[in-house]
Design a protein that fits this description.
By secondary structure, the protein is mostly helical. It is built from nine helices and no strands. The protein has one domain. The longest helix is centred in the middle third of the chain and has 33 residues. Belongs to the peroxisomal membrane protein PXMP2/4 family.
Length: 214
């Protein structure tokens, strides 16, 4: 494991963007496999002992490799390159334009706030739009999905990601911040799949009732 980490550090030093892109694609692909497992467990009803063996076989978890490739491509094409330049640019902006002392409370708080209110919504919007297009949905269908899923996901993630990012911006060097975020995205992928699986759940309607969307 130590040898693998040193190899990653070397790749990151020599080819920073390429390394971030490839690692993002791999991590998001693995995350989608985990998300599929979660979705399968959630959606599969309990089977009675009287069910036939064939029925049980049909309910066995099988990885949808096309979906894995699609999600991995999102990591490759969006999360990797955009995330790399975002975290590098955010750090330079806070240090050089706002003139805040690194690791100070205002430095970390500013990063968390800007990341949460700018990159967070953009990332969610890009994810839901991309996944909709990749499954062949029309633009009107994607709009409805975004209206249904975006706000609940943004609110729930808003209670988790700031805590994650405080540790990220306070203790993790800038060059490793995207990797840190991607590792947490393994869990986030499961969460977003769960959000999608919920469809028009009552709790979503309750959340959206506080901010009516037309």
């Amino acid at each position: 494991m130590l040898r693998l980490w040193k190899w990653y550090q070397n790749c990151l030093a020599v080819h920073p963007v390429k390394t971030q892109v490839i690692s993002s694609g791999i991590i998001w692909g693995v995350g989608d496999i985990a998300a599929q497992a979660v979705t399968h467990s959630y959606s599969t009803p309990n089977t009675a002992h009287t069910h036939q063996i064939q029925d049980d076989d049909d309910e066995e978890f099988k990885i949808n490799w096309k979906r894995v490739a699609t999600t991995s491509l999102f990591g490759l094409s969006f999360v990797g390159p955009v995330g790399h330049y975002w975290y590098e640019g955010l750090d330079r902006y806070i240090r050089l334009r706002l003139m805040l002392k690194p690791d100070s409370f205002r430095f970390v708080a500013s990063k968390v706030a800007i990341d949460g209110f700018l990159f967070g919504p953009l990332d969610l919007l890009a994810f839901f739009t991309y996944m909709g297009l990749s499954t062949g949905k029309s633009i009107p269908q994607i709009k409805e999905d975004v209206k249904r899923d975006f706000l609940p996901a943004f609110i729930l993630e808003g209670g988790i990601w700031p805590i994650v990012q405080v540790a990220n911006f306070r203790y993790v060097p800038v060059r490793y911040q995207l990797l840190y975020v991607n590792l947490f995205c393994l869990l986030d992928s499961c969460f977003l799949s769960w959000i999608e699986q919920q469809q028009d759940a009552q709790w979503k309607k309750w959340v959206k009732s506080f901010l009516p969307l037309k």
